[in-house]
Design brief:
The protein is α/β, with parallel strands linked by helices. It has two domains: 227 residues, Rossmann fold (3-Layer(aba) Sandwich), CATH 3.40.50.150; 31 residues, no CATH class. The protein is 31% helix and 19% strand. The chain is built from nine helices and eight strands. Strands 3-2-1-4-5-7-6-8 form an eight-stranded mixed sheet, sandwiched between helices. Strand 1, helix 4 and strand 2 form a beta-alpha-beta unit. The two termini are 30 Å apart. The relative contact order is 0.14. The C terminus is likely disordered. S-adenosylmethionine binds next to helix 4 and strand 2. Belongs to the class I-like SAM-binding methyltransferase superfamily. RNA methyltransferase RlmE family. TRM7 subfamily. GO terms for molecular function: tRNA (guanosine(34)-2'-O)-methyltransferase activity. InterPro entries: RNA_methyltr_E_TRM7 (IPR028590), RNA_methyltr_RlmE (IPR050082), RNA_MeTrfase_FtsJ_dom (IPR002877), rRNA-MeTfrase_E (IPR015507), SAM-dependent_MTases_sf (IPR029063). It comes from Electrophorus electricus. This is Putative tRNA (cytidine(32)/guanosine(34)-2'-O)-methyltransferase.
């Protein structure tokens, strides 16, 4: 496969490079904003799970605190925290940055490294969303908005009901740049209005295995169903389609490298070991045996 094949398969990946965004995710936030005018009147924002930083780029007109497990190349006007949003220490660091003031918008594009085990992936994703919600209750101003990635899996009703406790409006939105083949969508939670006398804390019971398993079976008025909205102009590119490399007959296609390669990718050590032939000898009898064992299981 040539290096341009990803450009062909993924139109938003290609456009991101052409327009200088660090990731194709930028288009998701832009299309959500087209629908919900999320950036109107925003001067302070929190970008959770921000690396490599395209959402922070989109929000670059405002003061941002950006958080991620991964190190992120600097961006002007963005305060960075490297940490895990499910850890209380990271949450406290974010809250410290906001002492005396609050954010108008909190966004979270957090996604776990997918394992392929749907239940596990959905569970971890839900934990990220709820950790983001807990942090949000500390820093978001009343009336502010919260946007987060959600996997529309089997626990989604429980998540919606938890979000509805804090926001008057919750919508599930699917931007056109998010593939239809992906269970990813975004909850757009508007008008933060926590229950009266609610005291933000980091130990609220989040989705865990002891919750009532019948929650998703509720019906009628007991079941929380939020509106679902496809957003992004219908004339926008379709993320599930393959496009020719030359989109415009007057402009020749030219391969462009990514705007900002990852600065400390988790696979860096493996690449180093492989390049320097430091990996266990793949030809040794023991590793051949190990290979067979892996195939068997
Ligand atoms: C889809 S990427 C975010 C892309 C980003 N919005 C952008 O536009 O560049 C998901 C990010 O979630 C981060 N992440 C996953 N689990 C996390 C956690 N527990 N705490 C902080 N970040 C996390 C990953 O490191 C990854 O960078």
């Amino acid at each position: 496969m040539g290096r341009s094949s990803k450009d062909k398969r993924d139109i938003y990946y290609r456009l991101a490079k052409e327009e200088g965004w660090r990731a194709r995710s930028a288009f998701k936030l832009l299309q959500l904003d087209e629908e919900f005018s999320l950036f109107k009147g925003v001067s302070h924002a929190v970008d959770l799970c921000a690396a490599p930083g395209s959402w922070s780029q989109v929000l670059s007109q405002v003061k941002i605190v950006a958080v991620d497990l991964q190190a992120m190349a600097p961006l002007p006007g963005v305060t960075q925290i490297q940490g895990d949003i499910t850890k209380i220490s990271t949450a406290q660091e974010i809250i410290r940055h906001f002492e005396g003031q609050s954010a108008d918008l909190v966004v979270c594009d957090g996604a776990p490294d997918v394992t392929g085990l749907h239940d596990v992936d959905e569970y971890i994703q839900a934990q990220l969303l709820l950790a983001a919600l807990n942090i949000t209750t500390h820093v978001l101003k009343p009336g502010g908005n919260f946007v987060a990635k959600i996997f529309r899996g089997k626990d989604v009703t429980l998540l919606y009901s938890q979000l509805k406790i804090f926001f008057t409006s919750v919508t599930c939105a699917k931007p056109r740049s998010s593939r239809n083949s992906s269970i990813e969508a975004f909850v757009v939670c508007q008008n933060y209005s926590p229950p009266e006398e609610y005291v933000p804390n980091m130990s609220n019971p989040l989705l865990d295995h002891s919750y009532d398993v019948d929650f998703n079976q509720l019906e009628g008025p007991n079941r929380i169903i939020v509106p679902f909205l496809a957003c992004g102009d219908l004339s926008a590119f379709d993320s599930d389609r393959t496009y020719p490399l030359q989109l415009d007959s007057s402009k020749e296609y030219q391969y462009l490298p990514p705007t900002q390669p990852p600065i400390q990718p988790p696979y860096q050590q493996a690449c180093h070991l492989r390049k320097n032939k430091l990996l266990a000898n793949e030809d040794s009898p023991s590793s051949r045996w190990l290979g067979c064992t892996c195939l068997l299981f």
